Recover the amino acids of this structure.
């Protein structure tokens, strides 16, 4: 059973999309993505001196005529894509409620997965949390959408997340570099998320970062007065007098935090976008994400 | 601005308590947030900021202002023009000598008066008054406040009770007549009600007191040779008091006894066989509220017995009196009496005669003429029977069945007289007491018939002499009353402190006895002593002073422009503040409507 936002129209529009990668990928089947290996695509890659046994069809007779030497034309190989979608399943993703943050984030992950599956590429979902990090098998083909839904339904956000070690555990068994999409609220210290993104970069993945925040985080509607604010992950308690001044200062700090994240992503060649969960999923997926170059 | 109810302003000291609820750090509302990463710095800044720990919202200051205005309204403030014409009345009665801490109430009154005088504008004119013996100005004309301050220190209390008057009405009248803008009355009485003009400044607190309320030295009978002293002590406190009562003669302790006296009780002590001294003092050794009434003075009755001056055209009829022991009789004619020049006597007998006015001494009128100042005289009757009599010291022990005077003229008592022996035709004996003097009028002549032959008449004669003597032994005058017997020509009067008292010319009656003690009248070598005591038990009872009733006279309404009451406006303004607070702080209502998603926060519900 597909979640509510996945209307037939939305699915139809997702099917025409295809993830864009900035890097060559290593697939194991012919596909639509450029591979660093030489293959049989129509896209010219290079020349190589003829060796006995080379297919004579690839000899460049023009060079032979000019230089009297034998060269064969080499072509890029086009392979299928292996996409890794990491979804933050830490405790903060359940704030202020599952329906308001984690579920929209999961739907976004499913929408991106559907794009991959519809293109007969491989997709794998990873849940990131400090308690029970799990990953689905690679799925291929639209018919595996139900498996992805089952997987994501079994994920329950809890615990604290340190992105770098958690991603490291997931990437330990990575064999094929591909597209990595990290969906998180990135409400961790700057150094922590930078380390996490650098881990992904180290594995030669083409990275996209989607920050998911609920409206209650962007514009907290806390009551004025004495508050004891408890961190949803670390249970750390802060005492403060909430008022209009603090509300304004909080907004400024959040904007600065997001700006730093965006700047880091830009410098690191990572696609970045902010998804506030009260936005329409189809609108964000079909309009915002193409603008940042996630789709082609 | 002044306050009609300044006691309410003491509550201002409690205003700082309004911050206590904010200091108590009410349990903050707990809520879970996705990450406190961005809030951490804000919280740190809030706690290090000045007043960071104590968060006082604007509503607090509104509340503070509201309470302040409310308390000020309770103080009943009035806007008053600074007074220029002021009267300061100091209560200088005996109770103002009570000690409060280390100073007397009167000293406190002087200090309060000085404070008021200091606060007056330089152009102000002040009249100083003392309330005892009656409300009289100390200054002949209004004086500047600086001079009034200088005069304050010279004022002192008198050992007098307060005159019976309605202070509230009297002070209002004073303010009205003298056109005072403000009359301050420093007293130990509380005040009830309020007045635009009169301010009562109450000093001192209710306290217990032990008082010597009576002290007499005399003879049990007028012919008895020994002296005896009787003293009465009253306990005006709520606890049992132990004290020692000492009798002194000429300053030396003659006898003393210890007593224990329950609350509200009195003890009467009698000391017999006292040696003769010119004067006596009774003292109770106790540290109580008022020291004045722990002393009392008395002088003994004249040593020569009952001195009688008889005025009679028939001196031989009075000769039988000389046979009574202890009686010193001097007989003069009515003409000689009119000339005067005789010494004062304890008793004056007018036999078939009468003075023009009641004499300033005890007097017996025997068959007075028709023109006499005491009774009306009826027609003569022969051997009238006694039809009735009243229980009176004069009628004691008499068998009236045998009482048949041979000749009588029935009497008609005047307004103050009282018949004690009645015959069918009218009264045979009339008694009257006026100005501490006893008067007895007889419608028959008992003196010719004294002896065994006529015992009832003899007993009557002894009874009446005893009755006159009984009062004669009450030999201590009250403060404020004239000294008796009157001063003689050429006598010098010394006060209790030994200072000479200047007398007005031809003044034989000295009544400015404002201080308790022994007064001495000296003439050459001879001395006469007068004991003067505070004779007002109300002054000794320091427990519940009566309140002074202040009333706003109708005339004062026209003068209200001096005093514009502000309490109503303050109350109105404070209510407006309350409404304002209601509008700007309705949070308590809204918070209850907020809902919480399941499992999210401890006590805060997200909208």
């Amino acid at each position: 059973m597909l979640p509510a936002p996945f209307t037939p129209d939305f699915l139809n529009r997702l099917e025409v999309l295809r993830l864009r990668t900035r890097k060559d990928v290593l697939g194991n089947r012919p596909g639509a993505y450029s591979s660093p290996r030489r293959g049989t695509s129509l896209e010219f890659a290079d020349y190589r001196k003829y060796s006995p046994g080379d297919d004579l069809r690839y000899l460049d007779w023009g060079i032979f005529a000019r230089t009297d030497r034998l060269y064969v034309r080499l072509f890029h190989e086009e392979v299928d894509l292996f996409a890794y979608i990491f979804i933050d399943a830490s405790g903060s993703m359940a704030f202020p409620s599952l329906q308001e943050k984690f579920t929209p984030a999961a739907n976004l992950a499913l929408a991106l997965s559907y794009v991959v599956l519809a293109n007969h590429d491989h997709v794998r979902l990873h849940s990131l949390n400090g308690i029970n990090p799990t990953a689905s098998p690679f799925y291929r083909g639209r018919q595996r959408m139900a498996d992805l839904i089952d997987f994501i339904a079994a994920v329950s956000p809890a615990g604290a997340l340190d992105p770098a070690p958690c991603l490291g555990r997931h990437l330990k068994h990575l064999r094929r570099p591909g597209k990595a999409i990290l969906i998180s609220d990135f409400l961790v210290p700057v150094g922590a998320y930078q380390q996490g993104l650098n881990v992904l970069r180290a594995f030669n993945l083409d990275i996209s970062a989607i920050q998911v925040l609920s409206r209650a985080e962007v514009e907290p509607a806390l009551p004025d007065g004495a508050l004891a604010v408890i961190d949803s992950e670390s249970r750390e308690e802060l005492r403060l007098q909430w008022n209009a001044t603090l509300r304004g200062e909080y907004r400024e700090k959040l904007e600065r935090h997001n700006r730093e994240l965006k700047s880091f992503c830009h410098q690191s060649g990572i696609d970045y976008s902010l998804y506030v969960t009260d936005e329409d999923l189809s609108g964000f997926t079909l309009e915002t994400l193409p603008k940042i170059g996630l789709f082609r | 601005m002044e306050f009609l109810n300044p006691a309410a302003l003491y509550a201002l000291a409690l205003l700082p308590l309004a911050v206590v609820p904010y200091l108590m750090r009410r349990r903050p509302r707990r809520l879970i947030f996705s990450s406190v990463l961005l809030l951490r710095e804000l919280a740190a800044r809030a706690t290090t900021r000045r007043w960071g720990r104590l968060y006082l919202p604007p509503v607090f200051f509104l509340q503070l202002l509201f309470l302040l205005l409310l308390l000020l309204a309770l103080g009943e403030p009035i806007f008053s023009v600074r007074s220029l014409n002021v009267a300061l009345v100091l209560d200088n009665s005996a109770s103002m000598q009570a000690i409060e801490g280390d100073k007397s109430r009167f000293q406190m009154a002087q200090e309060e008066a000085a404070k008021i005088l200091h606060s007056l504008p330089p152009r102000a004119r002040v009249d100083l008054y003392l309330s005892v013996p009656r409300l009289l100005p100390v200054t002949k004309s209004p004086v500047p406040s600086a001079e009034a301050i200088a005069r304050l220190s010279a004022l002192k209390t008198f050992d007098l009770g307060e005159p019976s008057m309605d202070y509230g009405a009297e002070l209002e009248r004073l303010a009205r007549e003298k056109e005072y803008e403000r009359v301050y009355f420093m007293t130990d009485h509380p005040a009830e009600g309020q007045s635009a003009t009169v301010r009562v400044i109450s000093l001192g607190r209710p306290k217990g007191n032990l008082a010597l309320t009576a002290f007499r030295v005399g003879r049990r009978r007028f012919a008895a040779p020994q002296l005896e002293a009787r003293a009465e002590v009253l306990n005006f406190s709520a606890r049992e008091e132990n004290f020692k009562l000492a009798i002194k003669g000429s300053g030396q302790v003659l006898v003393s006894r210890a007593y224990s006296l329950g609350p509200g009780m009195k003890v009467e002590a009698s000391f017999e066989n006292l040696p003769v001294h010119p004067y006596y003092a009774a003292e109770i050794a106790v540290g109580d509220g008022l020291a004045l009434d722990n002393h009392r003075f008395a002088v003994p009755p004249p040593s020569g017995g009952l001195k009688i001056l008889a005025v009679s055209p028939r001196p031989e009829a009075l000769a039988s009196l000389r046979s009574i022991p202890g009686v010193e009789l001097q007989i003069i004619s009515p003409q000689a009496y009119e000339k005067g020049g005789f010494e004062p006597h304890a008793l004056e007998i007018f036999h078939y005669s009468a003075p023009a006015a009641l004499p300033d001494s005890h007097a017996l009128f025997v068959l007075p003429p028709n023109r006499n100042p005491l009774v009306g005289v009826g027609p003569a009757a022969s051997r009238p029977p006694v039809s009735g009599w009243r229980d009176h010291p004069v009628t004691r022990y008499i068998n009236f069945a045998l009482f048949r005077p041979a000749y009588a003229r029935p009497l008609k008592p005047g307004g103050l007289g009282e018949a004690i022996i009645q015959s069918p035709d009218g009264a045979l004996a009339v008694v009257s007491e006026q100005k501490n003097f006893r008067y007895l009028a007889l419608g028959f002549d008992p003196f010719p018939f004294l002896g065994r032959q006529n015992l009832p008449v003899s007993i009557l004669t002894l009874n009446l002499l005893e009755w006159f003597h009984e009062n004669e032994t009450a030999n201590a005058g009250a403060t404020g009353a004239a000294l008796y017997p009157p001063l003689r020509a050429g006598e010098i009067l010394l006060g209790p402190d030994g200072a000479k008292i200047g007398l007005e010319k031809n003044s034989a009656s000295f009544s400015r006895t404002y201080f308790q003690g022994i007064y001495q009248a000296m003439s050459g070598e001879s001395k006469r002593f007068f004991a003067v005591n505070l004779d007002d038990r109300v002054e000794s009872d320091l427990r519940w002073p009566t309140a002074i009733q202040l009333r706003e006279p109708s005339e004062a309404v026209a003068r209200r422009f001096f005093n514009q009451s502000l309490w109503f406006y303050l109350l109105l303004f404070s209510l407006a503040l309350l409404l304002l607070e209601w509008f700007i702080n309705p949070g308590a209502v809204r918070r209850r409507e907020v809902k919480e998603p399941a499992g999210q926060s401890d006590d805060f519900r997200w909208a």
Q: What stands out?
A: Chain A touches chain B through 40 residues (CB under 8 Å). The mean pLDDT of chain A is 91. The CA atoms of residues 122 and 140 of chain A lie 5 Å apart. DSSP finds nine helices and eleven strands in chain A.
